[in-house]
Amino acid sequence: MYPEIIHIQNFIAANSITISLGKTPYIDKNLVPVILGIKNNTYTIHASDEYEDLNHHNIILRFIIVFRALTIIDESEDFLIWCKQESLNPINYKLLDYYKETCKAIDSISNYFINNEIDYFVSDLDFQLNTGVMQFLRR
Q1: Residue 130: its pLDDT value, please?
Q2: From residue 95, how far is each of 26, 62, 118, 125, 129 by CA, in Å?
Q3: Considering only Cβ atoms within 10 Å of each terminal Cβ, which end of the chain, N or C, has fewer?
Q4: What is the pTM of this model?
């Protein structure tokens, strides 16, 4: 078993995390709406899902996709940089509204993590190259 998976399982259990596909409209064809529950809080996150990982009923895989999406927003310097990273059209005002709302939500979501930094526990290299834990989870 990969240690990353154990860390994610422990984090999910400790924070009563639920992740389900959202029923809200897509704000962009490249982003899938997802409902993230953490303890008594609920957030709508729009995540890029190139490999359709969210369609699998695998909470660990969904966790990685959702928290990676939050990390990308958190680490982006501004809206335009985020749009460029995610290949999104910055003219879409719904994206700007979502970006602003999510930046505010990140402040409260990050409180659940050590050092107040969101972590999805998997290396970007494993994620992008579909190796290691990501290859294991996508089987």
Answers
A1: 87
A2: 10, 21, 21, 27, 27
A3: C
A4: 0.94
